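User: Acetylhydrolase. Structure?
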Amino acid sequence: MTRSLRPLLAITALLALAAPAAAPAATANLAVEQVSRMDTPWWHQRFAEKQAAIASGRYDLVWLGDSITQNWERNGPEPWRDFAPVWQHYYGDRHAINLGFKGDSTCHVLWRLAHGELDFRTRPRLFVVMIGANNFGHVHTDAAHTYPGITRIADAIHARFPTTQVLLLEVLPSIRSAWVSANTRQLNSMLAADIRRGRPWLHLQDAGAAVEANGAPDPSRFLDPHLTPPDPPLHPTAAAQQEIARIIEPSVATILGDHRH
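Assistant: Predicted structure:
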């Protein structure tokens, strides 16, 4: 190396040390990604069964969500998990389909919508969407990250069916942790403040009273404490879910243009 180059290289090295570090890449938001669960056998089987039903049937009403929605298919034997008679009363004559999958968060619903759950033979008239509770669980995305995941679900439905109405239910209160409760409240406040802006086809409804007493979640209105071993209160009992159906029934009947059930 020549003597003339050594000072220049030394200066270059000092400048490199003094230069600010490159900003870290922005953390990806899992809540807005499309994530498959096809490697889970029961989920894969359920998805295939629902795809076959979508391909062969006519549906005016679509319930879309997680285990709280999937529970509509459960038949007791205990009264607290005898949901199917309630579904039959409210939705049995309405050409309805249950697209609820236990454990799903917004990212899983987005994958489902992109892989066949919008491939209906005829246009549904109403989607009832209840999603977001699991974002605060194993996926662990906070309210700020979950909100755009929910908007993407609503917008994906609208992009495919521009004249279909969407009834979005706020995330139900639960008794899991202080962090979950705080993010549930924050997310619902964000939804109430903003999500209907520019979306006249979207209706937002709070059905939290179905699982509350005196303004707070009531453990007796959740099925999880009945399990062995018990789980933290998250899933409404059949009676509480019947109350959810009752709360949203005026909106459902108005959108579908039929009588109240």
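Residues 1-24 have pLDDT under 50 and may be disordered. The first helix runs from residue 5 to 18.
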